[in-house]
Design goal:
Blueprint (H helix, E strand, L loop, with lengths): L1 E5 L4 H7 L1 H9 L4 E7 L3 H5 L4 E7 L1 H4 L6 H16 L1 E7 L4 H9 L1 E11 L18 E3 L7 H13 L29 E5 L11 H11 L3 E4 L4 H12 L4 E3 L5 H10 L2 E5 L2 H8 L4 E5 L4 H4 L7 E5 L7 H12 L1
Parallel strand pairs: 1-2, 1-4, 2-3, 4-5, 5-6, 7-8, 7-10, 8-9, 10-11, 11-12
Helix pairs in contact: 1-11, 2-7, 8-9, 8-13, 10-11
Length: 325
Amino acid sequence: MNILLVRVSSLGDVLHNMPIVADIARHFPHANIDWVVEEGYVSLVRLNPRVRNIIPFALRRWRKSLGKKETRAEIKAFFAAVRQQEYDYVFDTQGLLKTGVIMGAARVKKGGQKVGLANGSEGSGYEGISRIFHSKSIPLDPRTHAVARGRLVAGAALGYAVDTPADFGLPDVSPDDPRPDWMPAGPYAVYFHGTARDAKKWAPQNWIALGQALAPMTILLPWGSPKEKAEAEALAAGLPNARVLPKLSMADAVLLARHAALAVGVDTGLTHIAAAFSRPVVEIYCDSPRWKTEGNWSPKIINLGDRGAPPSVAEVLAAAQSLLA
């Protein structure tokens, strides 16, 4: 059986789609699973050994140069790659027009199905027009967890129950893993403090108080934009044990999360990567609904706060200390 997954972005959404792969492989061990994903997240999906082929999608880059001959050639090659294989099932678990167009371009065998979401979840960017590309649309409760949504869609189409904890199919940490120059030799904590929406951030004084209480443990501070770098430098100035990291690639950011002895982060993709690896993680919710993305598949993940109710330093510190113990 040949299956195509269409989930192109963003980082957290791509990550939350991964347990579908393990579910399908558990019930159909010989299934071939391909995936269409934004080119920036190819290295993340490649970590899952059960994914056979990855088809890179580069809409974010193509939009900047649609008039160029080279860009049009890339787009043509992309759709040729999508159509190269004939599939038994194509799943669009994102529910956007752009993902629906990709689904529409894919070829299915006689009797094959193109399956997607009949509705979005609360606060999602779901686009109902995407249903015109479906042969089957699966309705879900609007408050279905982000990880469960895709799993339930695939399970309903393929005829199996979703009744096991989420398995992201990611490799365990090994002492033989290479450690880049920026990574300490000993245990470290990482603060995933940055996010695009300011309302989702935890107050700087909270991060500093937490780090002071965790001393002398080394705290690494990643960043993804000049603004986040300035924020990281301000945090480091208040901490005797913190280090601002260089600009990291996606692959290095995954390594950072994968090897952390403790990760503390707001509701953002890198926090969810650490949780997917089942590292000791404290997830902090300040202005997003906890039910939607909280890590609920491992006792090593502690979720605190909720929309409009950020946790206190004492709560986060107690959770961190319990995980380190």
